[in-house]
Every structure is written in structure tokens, then in C-alpha cells.
Amino acid sequence: MKAEEIELQLRSEKVRNIVGEIPSTIMRYGLYIIIMFVSVIFFCLSIIPIREQYTTDIVIKSIPENDIITSPIDGQINYSIDDNRNININEEIGRIINNDTTCIIYSKISGMVIRNQKNKTHITQDDILYEIKPNYTQYLYGEILVPIDFINKDYNSFDVEIVTREGNTVKGEITHIYEILVNEGSDQSYKADILIDSKASLQINLICKAIVTIKSERLINKIFR
């Protein structure tokens, strides 16, 4: 087509009408709508926190701990006190008698005695004789294993929840993560101390589930990291 013919077509009345026509509403505001939509998405990504969760086992312990005493020698155990009785520290609990000697067993703490052997029965060395439950609990604690990437995070912002077999929940707090690697199978983990409220009604040596939640990171940081 010749240049003269193209120029004539561009100057025709039909072409001038199309060029001079006002765009539709969608065409005029579509760009603004797209910009607003993208802005809303980025705003949501910047305020939505990520809740990474990690679940592991925890054994409930106490300070002072239950005192478990084993027999230092073979012989016959003669208890000096009844079962489930409260005793004081350094009080005599029983004696182990054999042909060579008599070994007197004293309480190392104050608390309730729970006997593990029948009176005047023969026992062997390292048999558990009794357990003393202290009269008071200063605080409860436990130890868990956490993944290797926890070591670089601010564990003070972690949310720890202790769940018993009955479904009861108790709040906990990570007080320290040790920087010594613990290998458990193919997983690499670190040991962490968990402080538990001493007023919580948890049985000592009870195995529970510890749910650790990390909620300090934002979703947008996770996407563009």
C-alpha cells in the first residue's frame, strides 16, 4: 500500500471517531484497581505472622527432685518407718543387714516415703528401696530436643505449651538452648530447658507433649527470603 493511501485512511472520519472516543470505565480505572489489589496483597503478607510448630516429648521434673534410693549392698531390708509417711531430713528409714555388716539408710530430704520393697525381704545391690516425694516444689522443668534451625532464632519469643495425655495444657517457657549438637538418628537437634509453672498440677516423671510455636516471622519475609 502506498504512503499516500495510508495517510488518507488515518485521516478518514471513521479513524478519527475511534481515536477520539473516550475509553470505557473499566479501561480508565482498571489500572488503579490492579494497583490497589496488589497493594492489599502486599499489606496482608506484611502483617500475617507465620506460626511454625514443632512437637516433641518432654519429661516433667521438679526442683527439688524426688529422692530415689538404691541399696548399696546385698542383705535383708528392715524398714524403720511405715509406707506413705512424712519424714524429716536425716531421719532413719531402715537398715540393710547381712553377715558382714549393717548399713543404715537415712533420708536426704524431707517428704513422703514410698517404699519399693516388702519389709524384711532379701534384696540385692542397686535394688530400689524407696522414693521420697518432697513436701514442696520450688519449680517444675523439663528438657526437650529442638531442630537445628532453632539455634539462630530468638527463643524468648517462642510459645511453649505442655499437653498431658488427658488433654490438659500448661504453659512453659524456654530458658536456654544448649549449643551442643545432639544426634538422634538422621535428625540433628539441640537440647533446650523448659521452665513450667510450679503451681501446675503435673505428675513428676510424667511424659507429655511439648508444642513449640514460633510466631515472630512475617509471611512476606518467608516468601522473599
How is this fold's topology laid out?
Elements: H1 3-10, H2 13-19, H3 25-47, E1 52-59, E2 61-63, E3 67-70, E4 75-79, E5 85-87, E6 92-97, E7 102-106, E8 111-115, E9 121-123, E10 128-134, E11 139-147, E12 159-163, E13 169-184, E14 187-196, E15 207-214, H4 219-224
Antiparallel strand pairs: 1-15, 2-11, 3-10, 4-6, 4-9, 5-8, 6-7, 8-10, 11-14, 12-13, 12-15, 13-14
Architecture overview:
The protein is α+β, with helices and mostly antiparallel strands and 225 residues long. The protein has three domains: 3-47, no CATH class; 52-63 and 137-224, Elongation Factor Tu (Ef-tu), domain 3 (Beta Barrel), CATH 2.40.30; 67-134, Beta Barrel (OB fold (Dihydrolipoamide Acetyltransferase, E2P)). 20% of the residues lie in helices and 43% in strands. The protein is built from four helices and 15 strands. The protein has helices at 3-10, 13-19, 25-47, 219-224, and strands at residues 52-59, 61-63, 67-70, 75-79, 85-87, 92-97, 102-106, 111-115, 121-123, 128-134, 139-147, 159-163, 169-184, 187-196, 207-214. A seven-stranded antiparallel sheet has the order 1-15-12-13-14-11-2, with no helix packed on it. A four-stranded antiparallel sheet has the order 3-10-8-5, with no helix packed on it. Strand 13 and strand 14 (187-196) form a beta hairpin. It is elongated and about 125 Å long. The protein starts with a helix and ends with a helix. Residues 2-8 have low confidence and may be disordered.
